[in-house]
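Quick illustration, no need to memorize.
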Amino acid sequence: MIDWDNAFEISGHIPGAQDLPYQWAARAAAFRKIWSEKAEIHTDLSYGPAQRHRFDLFVPQRQNAGLLVFVHGGYWRRFDKSYWSHLAAGALDRGWHVAMPSYVLAPEARISDIRAAIATAIDVCAKKVLGPIAIAGHSAGGHLAARMMCAGGLAADVLPRLARVTSISGLHDLAPLCLTQLNEILRLSEEEAIAESPVTLSPLVNVPFTAWVGAQERPEFLRQTRAIEESWARHGADVRAVYDEGHNHFTVVDALEDPNSPLLTAILG
């Protein structure tokens, strides 16, 4: 019998993981200070009625290339936009605006509520920046990014501008989460797990999708990556999976700081 709690456990298998949130927050705050001194940041812009319905918009120093929306992870129950500002560095260097939304967390919000909130956030961000739109998300944010490729995702007027979607270490098959203690917080029913799992849904077939995962991640996250590649390939989608050698669940996303990294090239094209 599979121990699903252990399958989805991440931090306990990465030495020093308990210190990482403090390090992320410090790096993010330092980046915001540096960027605000040489360019523009618009912080805590509203996209909805809740206190956490806020996003930060980073403005590049060079001519606008488009909009990247980055959706943070944390199993839909932790963190906010303030932990990840430094991950905007690479895209900004390439001339992209970067939007980072927060969202109401579980258990206050269900996953379907969070998905709807992210769709609204992207719609609001799209009205502020011209050009193509790329969406990327990490972990639970990878799920939310992938979910934007499916029915009930993006607004109709945003879809024609969607250029690429990337799920980094994403969760694409939510059904096993119903069998975990985490579900006491997520409150996933079987029906909602199916309805919100990208692997069970039909994707857009004309938008390139990348499922990017650290090759040293837990087996369940590797399976989640294989599952969406196989499922969406059967639908005829432009989908590929990349297993990033030498990286785990937390180090894999650091490549967003490098404008020349293969990951950022996959995200922006």
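The longest strand covers residues 40-46.
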